[in-house]
Amino acid sequence: MLMSLAGIIFGIGFFIVTQAQTSGFEQFFIRTILGTNGAIRIEDKFQDTIFAMAAAGHNADASKFEVAADRSARKYIEGVEDPERITDALHKFRNVSGVSTVVEGSVIADSSFKNDSAKVYGINLADHLAVSDLAAQIVRGAGSLEDFRSSPQGLLIGRVLADRLQLGPGDSVLLQAGTEQRRYRVSALYETGVSDIDRVRIFMHLGEARSLLKKTSGASFIQVALFDRDRAPMDALQMESVLRHGAKSWQEREKSWLEAFRALQISAAITVSTIILISGLGMFNTLAMIVIEKTKEIAILRSMGYTRSDIARIFIWLGAIVLFFGTIGGWALGAGVTYGVSMVKLPIRGIFRTDTFQVYWSIWHYVVATISAAVVVMTAAIIPARRAARLEPGDIIRGTSQ
Length: 402
Fold this sequence. Notes:
13 strands
C-alpha cells in the first residue's frame, strides 16, 4: 500500500511539473509573439468578387456576409489605403488597447564590412510602444529610445542582423531601396529572441520610411494590441466586416506552433499518467490480496451485523485515504519541483528568447492531476470492495466462497 501511495504522489507531482513546463513555454511563446507582432494585424483591403456576391444573395446584409464569406472569394488590394481613418475606427473597438501604423519595405543594408538584405519598418515610436514590447527588447544602447526618438536618422536594428553587419550603437549604415541610398545611424540594438525577426527587421521613423521607400501615403499594415488577447479571433472577424480589410488574429497566424505545443501537452500528460495507472494497478493487487487473506475476518464482521455496504465502504475508505494523502503529497512535490525547475538556467534562442526554464502556474494542472488519480485509485478500490461485499459468512465457513 505504501508503494502505491508513493506511486500516486510521484504520478501527480510529475503530471503537474510536465504540464507547468509545456504550458510555460507555450505562454512565453504567446507573450513573445504578442509583444512583437501584436494581437491582430490589419492589412490588404478586399473587394467582393462576382462569385462572393452571388453566394451572399442579392438581399443579404453586407456586414453579415463579410464575416461568413470565404476569403478565397475576395479580391485583395495590397496595403492599407487610408490608415488614419482605419486607426480612428479601430480605437472605437472596446477591446483595442493600442494601434500602430507600419510602412514596410525591402532594403539592402551596407556597413563598412559587408551588406545584407533587410526590411525597414517605419513606425511612430509612441504608437508602436503601445502595441509591442520593443522598449523591453532593447539590449544595447544607453538612452537608446530617447536617442532614437530625437534623431530623424536613427535606427533600431535586430541583434542578429547587427552581428552579421558588425554594427553597434553609434555606427553608421547605408540603406538602399531601389535607386535611393541614404546613410543612417544605429541608435540601439534590440532582440526579440525570434531569429527570423532579429535577422531582417530594422525600425525607423515613419516619415523617413515613407521618404526612403517612396510611399508617400497609405501603410503596409496596422498592428493592433488588445486588452483581452483571447478575443482576438472574434474581434478580427468584426474588424474585417467593419473596415473591409483583412484582419488576422495571433491565433490564426501562429496556428501551427500552437497546435505543436498542444500536442506536446497531451503527449506529456499521457506519458506521465502511466505512473498513476501503474500505481493504481499495484493498489488493486494489494486490496485484492487483502480480500483473499481476510475472508474469515470479513465473515466475522458479516455475522456481527455488518452489511455488504459496510464491508464495501471499508475498502473504499482505504482507497480514499491513499488518494487523499497521495494528492496532498503530489501537490507539494509538483509545486516544489516546478519552482526548482523555474530556476534552472536554459539559454534558448530561436522561436523565442529566454535564459531559464519557463513554467506556468495554473490551478487546473492540479485539478486535472487529481481527477486522473481519483479515477484510477477509486476504480482500483471499488472492484475489490465489491468482491468483498459479495462474500457470505456461510460460504466462507463451508469453504465455498468465490
